[in-house]
Structures are given as C-alpha cells and as structure tokens.
C-alpha cells in the first residue's frame, strides 16, 4: 500500500487520538521484612475537589494524600455516585482550566497528566501526551482522548470544556479540537473526520477506484492494486501521489477550524481542581 509519508507524519497524533487502554490499578503494598507489620493507610474523609453546581461535584475519597485517592462524580438530586478514576495523581497534575458545562449525567470526563519529573516510561500516560478519560453513557464505558500536554507545567496552557454533546480541548498554541460521539458511542475528532471524508471524496473525483482506497486508513491507498488490477503506469501512480498530497494540504490548511463554545463561566462552579491539604492525617511508620 502506498503510504503518503507526509500525511502519516501530519496525522499520526490525530488518527491515534482515541484508544480504550485498560490500566491495572497498582497492587496493595505489604511489608516484606521479617517482624515488620504492614501499615494500613489512613483514609481521610471525602473532600470536594471540583464543584460543577450546587448539586453536582467531584470528590476525592479513600486517600491518604491528594495524589493517591479515587475520584467520584456526584449528583445529589438524582442520588448518583460514579467512580471516574482510581488514582487522583494524574488529575491533580492538570493545572489548566477545566470547565464542566454539561447539564446531563451522561457526559463525564477527567484529565490525566504526567508529573513534571515522572519517568518517560510511565505506564499510565507515557511522556509525549496526556489523556482525557471520557464517557458519554454515564460511566459505563470510558475512552481515552489524547492531547498534547506533555506534563503538569505544560498543561497550564490548556482549556478543556465538557458540554452535553461535545468535548473541546484548546491550547494557547493550537486551534481548538472538538470531539463528538458516533452512532457506536465512540469519540472522534470532528475536524479530522471532515478532512478524511473530503479526502476520500476527492480521490474518487480523481478517478481512483473505490476498492483501491484503504477505508481503515482514510489517507492511504493501494498503489500495487492500481498497477496490477487497473493497469496504471508508474508515472500515473506518481502523478496521483502529487495530486493527493496537494489535496491533503488544501484540506488541512482550510478555514474549517473549531472554536470554543461561548459559555458564561460566572454561572458555573469551579474552573480548576483543588485539594485541601491542611486537614490531611499523618501516616504512622511501620511497627516492628
């Protein structure tokens, strides 16, 4: 299959922005030294770390410090309590704006960001991007939307907005990205989907047979099939490559860009995550 090298480089992030990686919680720590008794962590009382409105909020629970608890979504009016994540460290690392404008209980999301000094091989997030763990069915299923913040300090440049029907991610250095869900309930990048769809239509207008286009990779096509099945010459294949690159550049540089929705944040609750450390209980040392 002929891969458009420039296209692959330009879209490697966007085409792999979504995945459903399952992360296994860390094992319980026990003492391996003879005569030592493993210390059970002291769990502090739940605290609100993000308030959406009067009746909806996020809490930190089962924690000894701000980085090691579980995060829950609450709607007191509907008696809803949904676990969003098992380890709060990644969420507390996020320092950008987080605006929860959704009014339903279906669209849920939580950012997960590496610390400034985390190792590059961090199994939770890696080192080149961060994750927004998002659900559009009230927490039954979560998908991972990747965004470019490489660490906690870098995340200060970001704004994330959750609405009833879409999620927006904006950096001060990039245009906003809008994510919606398809009929299968999967999140997709709206602008990239438009580019892929228009590219596919443009290739058909160039006379490329439909069975040559790679539907699993909308920016690719099988040049061997053009030669072997449709008797294209090498010169014709090369000419098509030039035309397809030009088509991609036109679409990628188009004025089709997303903007953040105009939301009156004064009517909302929090815009950042916060954890009160003054009331945290101190942990006892191992006894032995």
Automatic annotation (TrEMBL):
Source organism (scientific name): Rahnella perminowiae
Signal peptide segment: 1-22
Protein name per the record: Tli3-like domain-containing protein
Pfam name, any one: Tli3
Annotated keywords: Signal
Lineage: Bacteria, Pseudomonadati, Pseudomonadota, Gammaproteobacteria, Enterobacterales
Domain Tli3-like: residue ranges: 44-170
